[in-house]
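Following up on my earlier message about 2-phosphoglycolic acid. Here are the inputs again, as you asked, copied directly from the submission form:
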Amino acid sequence: MTRSIRPLVAGNWKMNGLKADLAIAAEVAKGYDAEFAGAVDLAICPPASLLYPTSVALIGSRIATGGQDCSTQASGAFTGEISAAMLADAGGTFAIVGHSERRTLHGESNATVKAKAEAAQKARIVPIVCVGETKDEREAGKALAMVKKQLRGSLPEGSTAATLVVAYEPVWAIGTGLTPTAADVAEMHEAIRTELARLLGKAAAAGVRLLYGGSVKPSNAAELMNVANVDGALVGGASLKAGDFLAIARACA
Ligand code: PGA
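Thanks, got it. Here's what our run produced:
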């Protein structure tokens, strides 16, 4: 953790969740008492179809909501897309952009991710910009270089601690049950902080929340969240179980 930074634990439901699953959000809200809320921020990023009802279900809970993607465009003839302003209109305050599943399955380049992050910021949505190396890149000793390259290409200029969150998600750790060692996470997060200082200036870099994501579970959360420069988690699978999500958040608090 970074002592001066308030941690954020964000749940990425991916393409999971029907109306009945609003009960998960309600259960998370029930467990997020005032003392808990004093120590860690929570956000839930459900599928777009559930963003508005999730935001409504969480009114009064201090739990934020967000989208899992947003368009580079503000509005218009872009069938199937959702704009950052629409996320805001549905009560969202965050948008995950550049998730590895978008980068891989939808061919999103760093330039696209940057344009999405800029579109989010324009609509006063905080982008959670995801970066992370593949297994081959890690094995070739290129993890740090690849992630720095993604940061250089994906982050909007002028981002501040209030307008940007970065999530380090090694592609090989997502949904696999595998996680990097604490030492590898420490090395990567320190490198990200240093690169942010170069790109955005020292003040912004010192305050931007750097989340770790990839197979975070209640059983490994304490170890991962205790690593220097880890300011929270981006949680996939475990965010679909209220008890697990809360246990991970508690490890941050
Ligand atoms: P996981 O996913 O926690 O299921 O590994 C993380 C993510 O993709 O954000």
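One observation from looking it over: The chain has a mean pLDDT of 97. Hope that helps, and feel free to reply on this thread.
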